[in-house]
Amino acid sequence: MNKLNRRNFMTLAGASGAALAAGVGGSEKALAGSIKLQKSGRDFSPTTLKERKAIPTACWGCVTRDAMIGFVEDGRLKKLDGNPNSIRTMGVICAKAQAGVNQVYFPDRILYPLRRVGKRGEHKWKRVSWDAALDEIAGRLKKLRDAGTPEKFMYHYGRHKASQAATMYDFMAAYGTKTIGNHTSICEGSKWVGQESLWGGMYDNWDYDNTEFVVNFGSNQFETHTNHIPTSQRLIRAMVERGVPLYTFDVRLSATAAKSTEWVPIKPGKDGLVMLSMCNVIMNEGLYRKDHFKYMRVTADHNASVDDKIAAVKANVAKFTPEFASSESGVPAAKIKQIARGFAKAKSACLITYRGAVMHFHGADQERAAMLLSAITNNLDTKGGRVMGVGAGWKAPSSPKAEVHKGLNIRDGFPGEAAFPTHHVSQSILPLIKDGQFGRPEVYWWSCHNPAYVYGDNKEIEAIMKDESIMPFTITSNIVYDESSALADIILPDVTYLERWDWEDMVSPPQVAEFYIRQPLVKPLGEARCQGDVWPDLAKRIGFELVYKDKEDYVRQSCEMTPGVKEAGGFEYMKKHGVWHDKNAKPNFGFFEREVDVSGDGVILDEKTGVYWNWKKAGAASEAEARSKGYLGTKGAKKAYVAQNIEGTPRSAYPPNTKFLKSGLLDFYSDNFAAKGFSAFPTYTPIPEHEKMGKDDLILTTFKIAVHTHSRTSHCKWLSEIKHDNPAWINPRTAGERGIKNGDTIKVASAIGEMTTTAYVTEGILPGVIAISYHLGRRYSGIYGSGKSDPINGGAAADRDAGNIWWKKHGSHPNALIPNWSDPISGGQRWMDTVVQVARA
Amino acid sequence: MTDMKTPKISRREMLGGGGAAVAGAAVLATPLKQADAAPKAPRWGMVMDLRRCIGCRACTVACKAENDVSLGRFRTVIQEKTWGTFPKTKKVFLPIMCNHCEGNKKDKVPPCVKVCPEFPGERKKWTSPSGKKIRYRHGATYKRPDGLILIDKSLCIGCGKCIDACPYGVRSFDPFVKAGKDPMKQAADKCDMCKHRIDNGVEPACVTTCQGRARIFGDLSDPGSEVSKLVKEHSLETPDNVLLPDEGTIPNVFYIDPDKVLKTVYRQREKGKLDHYMDQIP
Predict the structure, then answer these.
(1) N or C end of chain A, less CB within 10 A?
(2) Is residue A783 within 8 angstroms of chain B, CB to CB?
(3) DSSP state, B3?
(4) What is the pLDDT of residue A61?
(5) What is the pLDDT of chain A when averaged over all its residues?
(6) B61–A719: do the CB atoms touch at under 8 Å?
């Protein structure tokens, strides 16, 4: 190991950092006392009082990816703040984003390419050059490609979005592998599958700015969400300034539940049932609104009248009485009725759901219930309701594709595991590699991902990654030596998100797309390199070319070819301002009502479904054949969808933009579901394991708190200082039955493993449940995350704060107790279903 | 969350772009008084709207970054408390920081300043935003004419008396900075309301990052400022809307607390300890 003086390096590395883009802010100095104080955009050194250089960029702490301003002093990043010109974030950021400074300068950061020298997992490394590392990787990849087996190179990512994903996919397509894994099924994949099956798209934005009433099932909206800052601040504003009520159904008194008008405790897995019982109340009491029924399909007949549909919905939800839902969920029937009535009677209402509701057995169906409740009250894609989100549609350059382009069938679970794995089954990838029935990658490269930590049964995942007979060659690009990096053969030092270029596109609550970019705030530390810079280099070494020379070039080209951004001034404009949106754009509400011209050549009406489609575009042999096979019977017809016949008018309705073949109606009666043996209409399916629980069994649920992501923040000192231990939440009654007192050491055991942790006895959780947050219990996460410096550098001394670390606990990880098991509908990981036994240790 | 008042003017309108208009309106509302009082000095204060605080800790971390606060201590924290019996359990968040106290009625010197052996020191002049020079007594801990209670670390002897004297326990030793007058010791440190920002016309770091807009900062001596309006609208100048009113410190940090939870949530310092001022999520 080459020993540099890390302290000097970490402190001064930025000093030579190139002066980057021009600052934001830039307004005249407002005088103190004039009350004309500026909200962010500028910052000053508290010691020298000098103004810090302001550079627009974007966060990557979580998938929300807020537009930010970075403040740099003498080449060193000192501070981050929201970009005041962002219509999404309105100039604020969260605690994790504020701690972005720690991401760059945490003392255990990986700064050089490393090659394993001992056995895998033995923590023995030697420093190598980038040339040596890339030549070795290129050699292996070229061999696979030349042999016509590019699919034996697998890339597995955790967080890749926008241009970070686009550049990676571009490289992989040019190389020829489709064996690309993601992580969505361990996040909230079930939710998207439920939505796609009827909406034809996914990602619900919640229009708090216009709503009058909010009901929340299992979202910790105020602490963490995939679009946290843009939505959360709008919700608290709606509550305080307009008196909008918020009802939160959750097993636990999260910050969201605590700030709600009312916390309604609910048993795990019963959210969909309660939603269906709310539908029952609304239908029986005549509180539904007819408006959206014409866009809904609720029976086998696509052409049913609105009255028939109303009758059918009523019949379908008849068995889900509030009394039945109450007996199953523990929510009082009167409460269900009260909230259902409030929801239906409000001028507009927003139904929100997240992991608590959907990461269950049949979780995708719970999401369908949420959509149903929204639709029958006309709160779908209307102001103040649940609306399909709008993100930026960037144009980007594309490299020539490889002639051979194929993938291993290891992304979608074991045969029969999931009916509609449209977001894949990432928790089964490594078990499938071990199984081997669909082949194994010879090179496995992961990035922004920590498989040995984030999946269920993580000890088994770790064992698979460690086994060289199963995983012959492993590569990671990472900034931190973590549980998975320890199992790599080559570690490439990645840049942090504050040292790289990207364009970004996350959903914008005003329903107007915001285009924004990320630009480096400082020069990458050490020898860290952005993957978007590595791809063109690696391609050359293998023997092909990409159409961009580095990530900056890719972002520049994208800015110059994206309509709107280009006219605004392209790359130079974006560097200066960071964000752009079309000021004349209309918010995307009511898009489904748009009238469509169906006079085009080849457009015919399919009488059965009411779909106008273009038989020529679908590739049918003749119009006659197209008509006889029909829209649903013609392969490729989905792509040729034009409009839906809505009471005689062709309207855009809900195009089948995903893998689900459907009409333009909201498919609440789903042939797709029925064909796979599931209920065509949203229903309630008890969780089998919960039905068989013994009297002393508890249900384990997991959760996220405000200051940590799943696995990429524990090395941040300012976050781990606030939250470094994750005791298990348990109700005093449940604890008392087991003789457990607050602070006691307890043992939690499931069918597959056990853990020791501390009891946090609190009235803030439902009896019968134990809840453990899942960001802590890190074995390797640098000195601040795991209490020990990484085995490579031992670089903790580089931070003058390392001696001030005062906490000794680093938490316990619950994933070893949770099997990798999937919702049979969606392939979503069943995080919230595990049955456990709890006792004093 | 029961009592949700609707402010007449949204915060956004007041702060975003409307700043100049609001200032103008204030002058119109009380033209004579304003002219008389001729903005001698602002009186900086903060209103914490407990309805809006969601306990996210962005303020805590923003402060750490802005001021490079070492581990083991904080300049601002969120306290949280859970109480009640399931299912009627409650949890509330309480942001706390230095109250930049006016000082008791008699001499207008807050306890931390009073105990500082280096106060009163040199007579100094401070230039107000309107250009007026105002004299004040400097010290290692001192009160600036705009009401900020500040520390001059170059004068600090590291005795820790101010740390003990603060009834709120918001001061601590800064392991990164030596006491100027006794390099064997560390200097005292605490929230300075981001004076380096407000002197340059930018709000404190905890305020700009607050997604709930629970922290509202401004000039309490300007009746047109948002803080003044909130103090008036919610009648905040009562013992129920500040911390430890019995200490007679006259805080410049006020709490909007319609659910009357301040007394339930606030965890006071224990003598000689600062555990209450460590931001911890249970």
Answers:
(1) N
(2) no
(3) -
(4) 95
(5) 94
(6) yes
Residue A800 reports pLDDT greater than 80: yes
| Interface contact flag, A33 B128, Cβ < 8 Å | yes
User: What DSSP element (H or E) covers A204?
Assistant: strand A204-206
Question: What residues in A contact B191, CB-CB < 8 Å?
Answer: none
Identify the three-state secondary structure at position A730: strand
A444: enclosing H helix or E strand: strand A443-447
| Partner residue facing A233 (CB), from B19, B39, B211 | B211
Q: Is B183 on the interface with A (CB under 8 A)?
A: no
CA distance A71 to A77: 6
**Residues A454, A186 contacting (CB under 8 angstroms):** yes
Considering only residues 36 to 55 of chain B, which have any Cβ-Cβ distance to chain A shorter than 8 Å? 39, 41-42, 49, 51-52, 54-55
Confidence of residue B279 (pLDDT cuts 50, 70, 90): very high
Give A249→chain B minimum CA distance, Å.
Answer: 12
Gap from B116 CA to chain A (nearest CA, Å): 22
The per-residue pLDDT for A153 is: 98
- How far, in whole angstroms, is CA A85 from its chain's centroid? 25
Q: Tell me if A81 and B209 make a contact (CB, 8 A cut-off).
A: yes
For A28-77, the pLDDT digits (tens) are 344 444 446 788 899 999 999 999 999 999 999 999 999 999 999 999 99
Lowest mean pLDDT among A218-232, A263-277, B7-21: B7-21
Q: Is B185 left (phi over 0), alpha (psi -120 to 50) or beta?
A: beta
Distances (CA, A) of A630 to A367, A457, A619, A627, A634: 30, 46, 13, 5, 6
Segment B186-203 mean pLDDT: 96
| Closest-CA distance of chain A to residue B251, Å | 19
Q: Is B137 helix (H, G, I), strand (E, B) or coil?
A: strand
User: Per the CB < 8 Å rule, is A240 touching B19?
Assistant: no
Asked if A236 and B52 come within 8 Å (Cβ–Cβ), the reply is: yes
> Residue A670 pLDDT more than 60?
yes
As a whole number of angstroms, the distance between CA A44 and CA A54 comes to 10
What pLDDT score was predicted for residue A4?
Answer: 36
A185 min Cα distance to partner chain B (Å)? 27
pTM: 0.93
Q: Complex ipTM, two decimals?
A: 0.95
Inter-chain CB proximity B54 and A763 less than 8 Å: no
Are B72 and B219 in contact by the 8 Å Cβ rule? The answer is: no
Interface residue B86 vs chain A (CB under 8 A): yes
Tell me how far CA of residue A480 lies from CA of A714, A716, A795, B281, in angstroms.
10, 11, 12, 24
Instruction: Supply the pLDDT for residue A797.
Output: 67
Q: Does the beta-carbon distance from A33 to B39 stay under 8 Å?
A: yes
CB spacing of A240 vs B51 below 8 angstroms: yes
Domains delineated in chain A: 6-105 (2.20.25.90), 114-187+406-515+527-568 (3.40.50.740), 204-388 (3.40.228.10), 591-674 (no CATH), 688-840 (2.40.40.20)
- pLDDT at residue A36, rounded to an integer: 67
What is the percentage of chain B residues whose pLDDT exceeds 90?
82
Q: List the single residue in A with minimal CA-CA distance to B258.
A: A240
CATH entry 3.40.50.720 includes domain B36-277: no
**Among the listed residues A348, A88, A350, the one whose alpha carbon sits nearest the alpha carbon of residue A233:** A88
Tell me the residue ranges of DSSP E strands in chain B: 44-49, 76-83, 90-97, 123-127, 133-137, 141-143, 149-151, 172-179, 182-189, 215-219, 253-256
Interchain contact, B56 vs A706, CB within 8 Å: yes
Give CA torsion, residues A199, A61, A441, A139, to 10 deg. Answer: 130
